[in-house]
Write a sequence for this structure.
């Protein structure tokens, strides 16, 4: 076991610990020890888990910002997304995902949950290797060094009424047997930084009988993610055809527990909010995407009061920054309530520290891996803040996290380590230039007329 870093400040669930030593063996932390009290070490925090990603959408960020309808919404944005999605193949997906994952690492994300439904060729036919698109994502993660929880998506119908997938959706679809084979094959590739879970695209895309059959067939303990209650239209359709709201229906008809991550869950009643918290499930909140799509605001204060587990995701990647996700999670609440400092404990305290603790506390159950804390036996993933940055001038331990999250837009992550290996130094990914070159070529081809 070798000492890796002397930390001037090291983040723990109880706050900062001064002069701590960080040791690593086989990609995991060993016991913490007393560091040299020189004050010259870094300010070290656990890496941030990104609980929701559609990697291919990085290539369309900024391309859906022209009005196509006076009632532009998620549903009109989806038309642009379908056009871009139809152009991807395994090579372009790997190039785009690698650029995205390098950007995530530079921003301080060290784990990504990839909600992956771009399975087949654009005409809906499987590739010779049915897992070719999944393999592209795995290759991108291994190339960049990010920890990956791959979530192949079950996508079967085009609406709550059971309509067939449209022509543009056919490349997303599986029958249940084919989907379970894909999951089994991918699980055979798991290693120290790769886990495979399952995503159900949404209640509108997975009929009740298929959901029950999939849950009965899947291994116990596998991470389960689902889009839910993102849009008012989705809630209205579910009420009309199932006589229940989406979260209400899910809680009543599925064994929702700590294995589950409910993505968005934006439109909730008080009973649904409390029900998710009681279930032990995690909510993946994606503030920049939810703002970009006009989804709505998650009821954060009520959910915190109920003791619910939550994390963040960058989803469509209009922003690739945990700082911006956490900042706008708080700012959205301030705009809605017209008050300040919403995300705090019952006794008050630091908004930044409350916001940091949420994603770290839910990291293990949502990812199926072991990130989230600088503690013995857990994944040796950490970030080092740039303590020389002007934003930190005169910083005290109690305000470091607040300054990181609320003191401007200059990147403040200096180094990033995953499984004990340094992947970012001086704010740059180790292979940033080569990855960016392939990304530019891929996107130019994807967007060519």
């Amino acid at each position: 076991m070798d000492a890796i870093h002397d930390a001037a400040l090291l983040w723990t669930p109880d706050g900062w610990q001064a002069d701590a030593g960080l040791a690593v063996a086989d990609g995991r932390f060993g016991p913490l020890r007393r560091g040299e009290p020189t004050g010259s070490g870094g300010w070290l925090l656990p890496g941030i888990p990104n609980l929701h990603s559609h990697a291919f959408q990085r290539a369309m960020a900024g391309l859906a910002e022209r009005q196509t309808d006076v009632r532009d919404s998620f549903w009109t944005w989806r038309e642009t997304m379908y056009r871009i999605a139809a152009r991807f193949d395994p090579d372009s997906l790997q190039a785009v995902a690698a650029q995205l994952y390098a950007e995530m690492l530079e921003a301080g994300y060290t784990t990504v949950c990839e909600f992956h439904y771009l399975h087949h060729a654009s005409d809906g036919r499987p590739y010779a290797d049915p897992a070719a698109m999944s393999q592209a994502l795995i290759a991108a993660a291994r190339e960049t060094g990010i920890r990956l929880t791959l979530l192949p998506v079950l996508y079967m119908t085009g609406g709550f009424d059971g309509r067939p997938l449209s022509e543009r959706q056919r490349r997303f679809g599986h029958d249940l047997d084919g989907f379970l084979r894909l999951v089994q094959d991918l699980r055979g590739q798991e290693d120290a930084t790769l886990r495979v879970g399952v995503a159900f695209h949404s209640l509108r895309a997975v009929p009740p009988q298929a959901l029950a059959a999939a849950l009965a067939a899947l291994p116990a303990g596998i991470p389960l993610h689902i889009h839910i209650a993102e849009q008012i239209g989705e809630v209205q359709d579910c009420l009309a055809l199932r006589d229940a709201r989406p979260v209400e229906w899910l809680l009543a008809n599925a064994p929702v527990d700590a294995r589950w991550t409910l993505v968005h869950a934006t439109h909730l009643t008080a009973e649904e909010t409390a029900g998710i918290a009681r279930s032990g499930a995690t909510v993946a909140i994606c503030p920049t995407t939810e703002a970009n799509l006009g989804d709505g605001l998650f009821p954060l204060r009520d959910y915190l009061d109920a003791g619910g587990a939550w994390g963040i995701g960058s989803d469509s990647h209009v922003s690739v920054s945990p700082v911006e996700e956490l900042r706008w999670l708080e700012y959205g609440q301030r705009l809605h309530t017209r008050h300040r400092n919403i995300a705090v404990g019952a006794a008050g305290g630091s908004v930044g520290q409350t916001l940091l603790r949420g994603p770290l506390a839910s990291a293990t159950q949502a990812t199926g891996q072991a990130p989230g804390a600088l503690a013995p036996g857990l994944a040796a993933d950490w970030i080092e803040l740039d303590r020389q940055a002007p934003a930190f001038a005169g910083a005290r331990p109690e305000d470091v996290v607040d300054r990181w999250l609320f003191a401007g837009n200059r990147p403040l992550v200096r180094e990033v380590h995953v499984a004990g290996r340094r992947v970012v130094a001086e704010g740059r990914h180790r292979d940033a230039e080569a990855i960016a070159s392939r990304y530019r070529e891929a996107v130019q081809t994807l967007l060519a007329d």
In short: The first strand starts at residue 2 and ends at 12. The radius of gyration is 21 Å. The mean pLDDT is 94.
